[in-house]
Design goal:
The complex is a heterodimer of chains A (364) and B (290). Chain A has 364 residues and is mainly α. Chain A has 17 helices and no strands. Chain A has helices at 2-22, 25-49, 51-61, 64-94, 121-127, 130-150, 152-163, 167-178, 185-195, 202-209, 221-249, 253-261, 266-291, 299-304, 310-313, 316-326, 330-357. The longest helix of chain A is centred in the first third of the chain and has 31 residues, at 64-94. The radius of gyration of chain A is 33 Å and the shape is flat. With 290 residues, chain B is an all-alpha fold. Classes of the chains: A mainly alpha (364), B mainly alpha (290).
Chain lengths: 364, 290
């Protein structure tokens, strides 16, 4: 049986060989040319459009009815989320027009009258409002301080954490320094009020015992600004390392080994390998942060403020809350909110295009 | 490999730095715990540092006896569970269809959703919309308007994108429809990201107070715990508030304040370490691909 099989194989093999040898050469050329043309057109299309596009084109060629019959459930799933985005994210954008109109409680937004000065009256009013100017200044100041002081810290922490040789200790450290991120600003403010209390707070008790004067951490504007920044760092430093640590784990260990062979020390390796590898991540996060330079968190300043420091703690978001929802000046505060959003987008676009011009990838 | 190498002096410096950081993160909470367990007199005499003086549970008893506070805790817990479930369902049903490459209108949906991350109408337009929809002073305003976060949706989508297409194709050949594929293939494979995002949503709801502050001005019964805590800590002294909130009178002792803070913190401190192992994976995906 086995032998017979082998024999048959040999025979067919030989037959093919003989047949091929016997074919007319022009005939082969013709056939293969046709074949080549046919294949080529197919390949060219694939090359031009990419494999995925071809696949989707083939699917498109099937009738639309078939497609929807097959995938209508996907659209069914999308209905709720899309409705959510339209109702709660896009319809509010229609209400932005009241920034250019005189708000009235009895009319709907389309019927209200345009404000003076070609509709820009409330923008002019905002910029001649002393409280708003202060809020703008404070927002910029607090965000700049956060950026300058708070931005580099997670990078340094991630680099150090990456150097830790003990895995168990590393895990415990990560667990503990991520924890403050999960506390609300009200709780942090509660902790801060007790910790920094001038008479019986832990810090001031310790300072007094060591012979220093009491420091009014939360009750005096300058100190408050630094306490604010410090608490921000405390809350987010650990959490922000996650992204950098993730980026560091993707570095090829051979780079470090090669550097060690060349005699590089720990610091040199950090400077010449880890940091350059982190650069794209740093740039993306920096762009995002610059986009938020005028955006203001509400919870943090609102929870940490107190009547003694309102001159530095009033930011745009608290201004909008006080004057809009509490003070019912809807047109003015909508104008302020619009200004804030537009500046945010502009900053993001500028930062992104600058980054791209410097040869970075950017965020889109 | 790293474990076997010799320990250098540099390592000890780094370990020292991190021990200090760990202390910086933990000591404030230990201090509050000690204060909540000490007597009011010891606090006034500045004796309490990290260990309770004249140990007692009086403050906790007082807090637990206050029906406003306990109701607020229970209500916030219920709210958190509802919000987390609603948000997770929304996130999954938004992210899953977007993982189909050939979905018609996919690019449009994507752009439409991501746009909202960069440009939002602002607080007041939202407020006026809720007013027109009748959501003001309605507990639903704490659930619906923020039930879907674009950022979390992107994390979810990136994770689902990472599941091999061949799994889906083979199920399609077997005749399974998109929903069936989602339920029996995609969801069981994405438990880690579901745990992560649930933690994010739950913590966000538990910690959030600004929506209640802005949109539930008159309905104090449904204020979440953080807002009540804010009023207690800041000695909101208006007669109305003091009458409604029982013990939150201006002269509230620091011990009691510490106990209220501990109560609002404990749920997070208890849940967090259990979910921690999941969220590092989840966040990493979002960071790398988002």
């Amino acid at each position: 049986m086995n032998y017979m099989d082998k024999f048959k194989k040999m025979q067919t093999f030989e037959m093919i060989n003989i047949d091929e040898r016997g074919l007319d050469i022009p005939y082969i050329v013709l056939i293969s040319w046709l074949f080549y043309r046919l294949k080529l057109s197919g390949f060219r299309q694939i090359k031009r459009k990419g494999m995925l596009a071809m696949k989707s084109e083939i699917l498109r060629k099937n009738s639309n009815i078939n497609y929807f019959k097959r995938y209508w459930t996907l659209y069914l799933l999308m209905i709720l989320p899309i409705a959510f985005f339209i109702v709660f994210r896009y319809i509010p954008m229609m209400y932005i027009q009241i920034a250019f109109k005189n708000y009235s409680i009895v009319q709907n937004i389309w019927q209200m009258e345009w404000a003076g000065n070609h509709g820009f009256e409330y923008f002019i009013k905002a910029f001649s409002n002393r409280d708003f100017i202060y809020a703008l200044r404070n927002t910029l100041m607090l965000n700049m301080l956060d950026l300058v002081i708070g931005f580099p810290i997670p990078i340094v922490l991630a680099l150090l954490l990456n150097e830790l040789p003990f895995n168990g200790f590393k895990r415990v450290t990560q667990t503990v320094i991520y924890m403050p991120h999960f506390l609300s600003w009200v709780i942090i403010s509660g902790i801060a009020l007790q910790l920094f209390a001038p008479t019986n707070g832990l810090i001031n008790i310790l300072l007094n015992r060591l012979g220093f004067n009491t420091i009014p951490f939360l009750n005096e504007p300058t100190h408050w600004v630094f306490t604010y920044v410090l608490l921000g760092i405390w809350q987010s430093m650990g959490w922000n390392t996650i992204i950098y640590i993730a980026a560091l784990t993707t570095i090829n260990p051979e780079l470090y080994e090669a550097a060690s062979v060349d005699g590089a020390g720990r610091l040199r390796k950090m400077w010449h390998i880890s940091l350059p590898e982190l650069r794209p991540t740093i740039v993306v996060l920096l762009i995002m942060n610059l986009g938020h330079i005028l955006g203001s968190d509400f919870d943090r300043p609102y929870a940490l403020t107190n009547p003694l420091v309102t001159s530095v703690s009033n930011v745009i978001s608290t201004f909008v809350y006080q004057n809009g929802i509490r003070g019912l000046q809807f047109s003015l505060t909508t104008a302020v909110g619009l200004f804030q959003s537009v500046i945010g987008v502009v900053f993001l676009l500028i930062a992104n295009s600058v980054a791209k011009r410097l040869g970075e990838r950017g965020i889109w | 490999m790293r474990n076997t190498r010799n320990i250098k002096p540099g390592d000890l410096v780094i370990v020292f730095i991190f021990i200090i950081l760990i202390l910086v993160c933990l000591l404030p909470i230990l201090n509050i715990l000690a204060r909540s367990l000490s007597s009011a007199q010891a606090l006034v005499k500045n004796e309490v540092l990290l260990w309770p003086v004249e140990f007692n549970f009086d403050a906790y008893e007082t807090v637990l006896k206050d029906s406003k506070y306990t109701w607020s805790l229970v209500w916030t817990a219920i709210l958190t569970v509802i919000c987390t479930i609603v948000s997770m369902v929304m996130t999954v049903i938004c992210a899953y269809p977007l993982t189909y490459d050939h979905l018609k209108g996919r690019r449009f949906f994507n752009t439409m959703i991501i746009m909202t991350m960069y440009f939002s109408a602002g607080t007041i337009p939202n407020y006026l919309l809720y007013k027109d929809l009748g959501l003001l002073d309605n507990p639903l305003v704490l659930i619906i308007p923020n039930c879907l976060s674009v950022f979390n949706m992107i994390i979810m989508r990136s994770f689902l994108d990472g599941i091999p297409q061949s799994l889906r194709e083979s199920a399609e050949i077997d005749g399974a429809g998109p929903i069936r594929i989602l339920v029996s293939i995609y969801l069981p494979l994405s438990t880690s990201v579901i745990a992560t995002l649930s933690l994010f949503y739950a913590v966000g709801r538990w910690n959030g107070f600004s929506d209640a502050l802005m949109y539930m001005i008159n309905e104090r019964r449904y204020h979440p715990i953080q807002l009540l805590l804010y009023n207690i800590l800041n000695n909101v002294t208006s007669v109305e508030v003091a009458a409604q909130e029982g013990f939150s009178t201006p002269g509230l002792s620091d011990t009691l304040k510490a106990a209220t803070v501990m109560f609002a913190t404990l749920p997070i401190l208890i849940i967090y370490p259990w979910l921690q192992k999941y969220f590092i994976a989840g966040v990493t995906i979002g960071a790398v691909k988002g």
